[in-house]
Amino acid sequence: MGILEASRTVEIDAPKSECYAIISDLPATPEWQESMISIDVLETDSEGRASLVEIKSDGKVKEISSRIAFEYQPEDGMTWDQKKGDLKSLIGSWKLEDLGDGRTRATYALKGDTGRMLGLLIKGPVQDKLKEWLTKDAAEGLKARAES
Fold first, then answer.
1. 105 CB burial (10 A radius; 0-12, 13-18, 19+)
2. Looking at the DSSP assignment, which residues form a beta bridge with residue 90?
3. How far apart (Å, rounded) are the C-alpha atoms in residues 94 and 40?
4. 3-state SS of the chain: helix, strand, coil percent to 5?
């Protein structure tokens, strides 16, 4: 088994509400998060937000599929938990903090267990590059989208 745990924090020249609007629009995520190949909304919550999705991601050594449930904390971020997928487990979060003057600190965090089979492919330097790829892609993608 290989545990993947990583996070990345960026400061963004955009208000927290705008950053939240971007991260909570899950169907648009592949437009700004390069590692995400596709996302299909399977269920929505009472407010019409995607609550269960099927995501295909570029795992560098293999395309990874995950069925993920999302919980929203309006304006403060969101959390997610894999219900089914190629990884043994996966949880993650976005945390948004208002820095004042229309600036936001955004932290993207992931923790997953690759399981035995993927763990054999994703280890050592490959694991480090994958963690860098996934967290940098999400955090820097949000920054670029919000500041454009």
1. middle
2. 112
3. 20
4. 30, 50, 20
pLDDT (average), residues 80-105 = 94
Q: What pTM was estimated for this model as a whole?
A: 0.86
Q: Which domain holds residue 143?
A: 3-147
For residue 20, what is the domain's CATH number?
Answer: 3.30.530.20
Q: Which two tokens stand for residue 120?
A: 């054999």
CA angle in degrees (0–180, nearest 5) for 9-70-62: 70
Query: For the chain, how many structural domains are there in total?
Result: 1
Classified as helix, coil or strand, 93 is strand
Residue 36 predicted with pLDDT over 80 = yes
Confidence of residue 78 (pLDDT cuts 50, 70, 90): very high
Burial classification of residue 101, based on how many CB atoms lie within 10 Å of its CB (0-12 exposed, 13-18 middle, 19 or more buried): exposed
The DSSP secondary-structure symbol of 111 reads: E
Which residue in 73, 134, 102, 109 sits closest to 11, CA to CA? Answer: 102
